[in-house]
């Protein structure tokens, strides 16, 4: 027995096995009512409805992709329910599915679902279908009539004897195909003349014109399937394994691909495309192969029912001059700051207990539109620890590997909807491998053990959260924290290989403080003062000042203007500062520039009983109303619209003014603690 005959027998056994298994799986699986189908399904389509069909038919795994196993299972089901066993799950199959899967029955004069009735001459595939049709979709390759049975002019061919006129085009074609991708590589135009035309098939030939060892000339080493499109509509497809192979130099692979719903109205010009779907993995030696695709024969019907063939050989062909490319060639991930990244603020820590969890920074992984899906395994997060609230380059000698763990209780990273613990990296000697004593930088490793994947063109949000140990004896109030992520230091997995993302993220500088106040806007007004002079304005902010710390705190009486609106920063103790800092700015954040003499400032408490010698008392667990009023005279300056915004504050543990050392920044983002704008003339 020849090897070829053995292979054919083995292939037949495998197909029968697949069909039997698929049908057996259906009889013991989901019911018809478990799935709802609103479209036709066939080889190459994907979706959750395909997955439901696979589950019902016992196809495993239920991948949501209609492949050969699914096609075989559908054919088995169709054969047992009086539906033509085509593997195309269309209108007839959906009707049988929703009708409770009736037992096998055939039209009069038929003993099977193949051939035509000896009584009526109609198709045995289903009662009432026109000759040449196996379903209610498309048009008959025999008569050109609509398989739906409709006689309306919109679904039948009109006219008399017709022809097609052809012309070349290269618009919208690609000469390179990425692994696993589908690209249109050949095109031609066909114009119907004298009749509506139903194109029923197109013969396609492929050959590796650039074949030379060590590359392969076998089509299936490059291509998974070949599809035919009319404009943006796919009208036919075939597996590369179904192409006939003719030995030569090089070998030629041909297949006549049946088309459905490829109707060209009389006088209309349609563009036909041949597209190739590359296999997921192509050997490196085969990447540069120059495959030529040739449209050879086209078959169609006109309104008279005539079946016509035209020879197109050699007239419309294209060569993939750049061959194929690795699926990872366009892999692209960028690390960028996310919109929810918090502003610089002060985190309240506790003297003798672990702090609450705080959001330190937010960034995103931005995967390129042409990238393959990307999987994350490990993400290093760097935490920079400093002890000076305004100069992070000044690092205490006490900030070393051991003290990092004394300061930081936990680091967590939330990626998408999942929270991951980050572990402090170290080596056998107990010294942090990447700890930098000059900057106080320590590395924490996030292990993404579930293989989180991001699809092409999507963003994945990540947030860094931290808690801090009790402050007493471990670190000074005023210690700062900065988190960062560097793309070059992490590795992600693309389609075929690992690579390093681009970009980086660095959080704002946050300050750890035992004593801190929370300041929020209670109300705001802006008026002309006096009302008949639009050059003079009075801005008023009433603030809710809350003390959530363990101690009584004091807010110094005064306020100071901050002219740097683009990066205002909190007021700093010991720098001629007062209790509050503010900025006058336009709606874009550009500061109003004027001399202090043109501005008057008042800070008052709603409750006079809290006024001390130099500061307001904000007792533990209380909220007090503090009013900031700024009047500005714009006479002689530049006209514009301005608003008043609080940019920071200092507080202390005793009744002292804002210049005294030991005061702390406030745990609050002040971007929304502001009035509305008011237009000032000159």
Regarding quaternary structure, what we see is single chain
* Beginning-to-end CA distance, first to last residue: 104 Å
Percent of residues in helices:
under 10%
Residue share in β-strands: 35-45%
Main beta sheet: 9 strands, mixed, barrel
Number of strands: 39
- The best one-word shape is elongated
Query: Which secondary-structure class do the elements indicate?
Result: mainly beta
| Rg over alpha carbons | 37 Å
Average predicted local confidence, pLDDT = 77
Number of helices: 5
Low-confidence stretches: 1-30, 100-105, 149-155, 388-402, 427-439
Major sheet strand order: 15-17-23-19-20-21-18-24-27
How would you characterize this protein structure?
There is one protein chain. The chain has 682 residues and is mostly beta strands. It has five helices and 39 strands. Strand 7 (244-246) and strand 8 (252-258) form a beta hairpin. Helix 1 crosses helix 3 (68-79).
């Amino acid at each position: 027995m020849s090897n070829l005959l053995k292979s054919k027998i083995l292939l037949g056994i495998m197909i029968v096995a697949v069909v039997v298994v698929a049908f057996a799986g259906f009889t013991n699986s989901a019911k018809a009512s478990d799935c709802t189908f609103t479209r036709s399904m066939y080889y190459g389509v994907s979706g959750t409805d395909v997955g439901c069909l696979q589950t019902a038919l016992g196809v495993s795994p239920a991948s949501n992709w209609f492949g050969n196993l699914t096609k075989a299972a559908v054919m088995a089901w169709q054969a047992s329910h009086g539906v033509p066993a085509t593997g195309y799950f269309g209108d007839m199959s959906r009707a049988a599915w929703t009708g409770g899967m009736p037992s096998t029955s055939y039209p009069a004069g038929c003993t099977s679902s193949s051939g035509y009735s000896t009584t009526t001459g109609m198709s045995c595939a289903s009662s009432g279908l026109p000759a040449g049709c196996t379903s209610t979709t498309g048009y008959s390759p025999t008569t050109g009539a609509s398989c739906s049975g409709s006689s309306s002019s919109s679904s039948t061919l009109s006219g008399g004897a017709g022809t097609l006129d052809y012309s070349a085009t290269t618009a919208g074609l690609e000469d390179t195909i990425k692994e696993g991708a589908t690209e249109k590589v050949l095109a031609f135009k066909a114009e119907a003349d004298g009749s509506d035309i139903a194109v029923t098939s197109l013969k396609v030939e492929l050959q590796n014109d650039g074949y030379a060892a060590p590359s392969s000339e076998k089509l299936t080493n490059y291509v998974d399937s070949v599809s035919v499109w009319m404009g943006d509509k796919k009208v036919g497809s075939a597996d590369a394994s179904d192409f006939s192979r003719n030995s030569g130099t090089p070998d030629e692979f041909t297949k006549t691909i049946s088309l459905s719903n490829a109707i060209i109205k009389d006088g209309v010009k349609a563009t036909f495309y041949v597209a190739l779907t590359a296999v997921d993995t192509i050997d490196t030696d085969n990447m540069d192969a120059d495959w030529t695709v040739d449209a050879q024969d086209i078959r169609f019907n006109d309104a008279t029912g005539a079946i016509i063939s035209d020879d197109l050989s050699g007239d419309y062909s294209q060569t993939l001059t750049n061959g194929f490319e690795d699926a990872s060639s366009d892999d692209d991930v960028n690390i960028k700051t996310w919109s929810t990244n918090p502003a610089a603020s002060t985190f309240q820590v506790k003297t003798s207990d672990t702090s609450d969890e705080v959001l330190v920074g937010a960034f995103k992984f931005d995967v390129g539109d042409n990238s393959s899906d990307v999987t994350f395994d490990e993400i290093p997060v760097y935490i920079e620890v400093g002890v000076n609230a305004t100069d992070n380059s000044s690092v205490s000698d006490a900030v070393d590997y051991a003290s990092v763990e004394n300061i930081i209780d936990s680091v967590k990273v939330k990626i998408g909807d999942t929270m991951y613990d980050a572990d402090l990296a170290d080596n056998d000697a107990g010294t942090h491998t990447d700890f930098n004593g000059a900057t106080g930088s320590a590395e924490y490793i996030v292990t993404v053990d579930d293989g989180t994947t991001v699809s092409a063109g999507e963003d994945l949000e990540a947030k860094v959260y931290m808690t801090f140990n009790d402050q007493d004896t471990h670190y000074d109030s005023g210690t700062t924290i900065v988190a960062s992520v560097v793309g070059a230091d992490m590795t992600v997995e693309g389609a075929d290989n690992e690579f390093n993302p681009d970009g980086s993220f660095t959080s704002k500088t946050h300050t750890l403080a035992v004593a801190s106040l929370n300041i929020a806007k209670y109300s705001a007004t802006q008026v002309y003062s006096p009302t008949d002079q639009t050059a003079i304005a009075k801005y008023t902010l009433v603030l809710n000042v809350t003390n959530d710390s363990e101690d009584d705190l004091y807010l110094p009486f005064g306020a100071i203007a901050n002219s740097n609106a683009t990066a205002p920063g909190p007021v700093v103790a010991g720098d001629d500062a007062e209790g509050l800092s503010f900025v006058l700015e336009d709606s874009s954040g550009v500061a109003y520039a004027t001399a202090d003499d043109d501005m008057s400032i008042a800070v008052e408490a709603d409750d006079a009983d809290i006024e001390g010698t130099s500061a307001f008392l904000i007792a533990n667990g209380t909220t007090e109303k503090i009013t900031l009023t700024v009047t500005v005279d714009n006479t002689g300056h530049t006209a514009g619209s301005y608003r008043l915004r609080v940019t920071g504050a200092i507080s202390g543990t005793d009744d002292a003014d804002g210049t005294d050392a030991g005061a702390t920044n406030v745990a609050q983002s002040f971007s929304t603690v502001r009035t509305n704008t008011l237009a000032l003339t000159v």
